[in-house]
Amino acid sequence: MTRAYNFSAGPAVMPEEVLEQAAAEMLDWHGSGMSVMEMSHRGREFTSIIDTARADLRALLAVPPEYKILFLQGGGLGENAIVPMNLVGRKSKPATIDFIQTGSWSVKSSAEARKYANVHIAASAAGGKFTHIPERSTWKLSADPAYVHVCTNETIDGIEFGDAPDVAADTGGAPLVADMSSHILSRAIDVSRYGVIFGGAQKNIGPAGLTMVIVREDLLGHALPICPSAFNWKIVADNDSMFNTPPTYAIYIAGLVFQWLKRQGGVAAMEQRNIAKAALLYDYLDATDFYESRVDPKVRSRMNVPFFLADETLNDAFLNGAKERRLLQLKGHKSVGGMRASLYNAMPLAGVAALVDYMREFERTRG
Ligand SMILES: *Cc1c(COP(=O)(O)O)cnc(C)c1O
After folding, report:
1. Are residues 291 and 347 in the same domain?
2. Ligand 1 nearest atom to the CA of residue 77, by list position
3. Could you tell me the distance, in angstroms and rounded to a whole number, from the CA of residue 181 to the centre of ligand 1?
4. E strands along the chain, which residues?
5. Residues 219, 344: one domain?
């Protein structure tokens, strides 16, 4: 068996230690005589698994006590509907939601929200083909939106927010909602600056099927009557994410990843490694004319690095050569083209070094 370096944007690379532990525990979890996927979600064993996962996530992100952590299904796209169904009821009709469009995912979120409220695009980088974040001073926020939505890491376009933008001052205190699907746990964040943080697990955490929501308690209890009970955050919170069967196996794996992160030194230590990994690749991209990064250097994502060969007729040769070296899933998203290397927590520095070595070699032989 040889494990490849997997640069997929998601579902994506997992820590090898976690896969080994899951394999070792597959048939008999801790003497229970069962695989985790065979357990009742209400039994003692699984209750201990979900409680530990929740507590570990709270510790890793320093989630303040007035926030609930929910484990749901539905994915990031599901949340595009679930968030408005839970939050627009706080405002008298017709409610408005403000969106900051910085890439494909925030555009998708704004399109879905139109089913539930008025949508106001307070800022958009679409004119620049999503290669920058519009300056905060240019945002035209509405006076009283139900919330302001940002995607803090645009997986497809490779754009990342450093800090949480301060929106409350201009909006009468509207909560900030952040889609963090593709960089949650990759860097330290101040949870208290957000009303809601959500993310699908399959980018930086675990298997597809699990969606995490971190929500400030005062935002619960305002769901629209049409909101399905299983997606009503208040009901889910009151039932400790057990209103219906949660994605038990995905929660177990995510819990193993949380424990792995703690062994790595937590999110701050992970962030230092992610900075080093991203710098290795971006520094090389900046040093050559053979490849190119098109994203404003100030907002380049540490997690997802789209790049282009100056001579795009070499794209197939580049990808084939990469595959021969077991550097996998480097093809860019179809809407952007070129290449994309995703450098999630579980991608070791050695993987990025192997990629840069290959890129240098390819440049030398084909440039
Ligand atoms: C992948 C992704 C999504 C969509 O997630 P699904 O689980 O496929 O619904 C949403 N937002 C961001 C930022 C993503 O990276």
Report:
1. yes
2. 9
3. 6
4. 5-6, 67-72, 96-101, 118-124, 147-151, 153-154, 159-160, 176-179, 196-200, 211-216, 291-292, 304-309, 327-328, 339-342
5. no
Catalytically active residues, by annotation = 105, 179, 203
Of 164, 191, 219, the residue nearest 65 (C-alpha): 191
Q: Are residues 251 and 295 in the same domain?
A: no
Regarding whether 114 and 49 lie in a shared domain, the answer is yes
- pLDDT tens digits, residue range 106-138? 999 999 999 999 999 999 999 888 999 999 999
> Which residue puts its alpha carbon closest to atom 3 of ligand 1?
76
Distance CA 84, CA 288 (A): 45
What token pair was written down for 207? 């298997």
Q: At 275, which CATH number?
A: 3.90.1150.10
The residues, ordered by sequence, that sit 6+ positions from 296 with a Cβ below 8 Å of its Cβ are 131, 132, 133, 159
Q: What is the pLDDT of residue 2?
A: 84
Tokens of 20: 């080994």
pLDDT tens digits, residue range 47-73? Answer: 999 999 999 999 999 999 999 999 999
Q: Which residues line ligand 1 (CB under 6 A)?
A: 10, 75-77, 105, 151, 155, 179, 181-182, 200, 203
233 φ/ψ angles, rounded to the nearest 5 degrees: -60, -35
The reply to whether 274 and 357 lie within a common domain is yes
Same domain, 180 and 326: no
Same domain, 114 and 178: yes
Range of the domain at 159: 17-263
Q: Are residues 282 and 229 in the same domain?
A: no
Q: Helix (H, G, I), strand (E, B), or coil: what is residue 64?
A: coil
pTM: 0.98
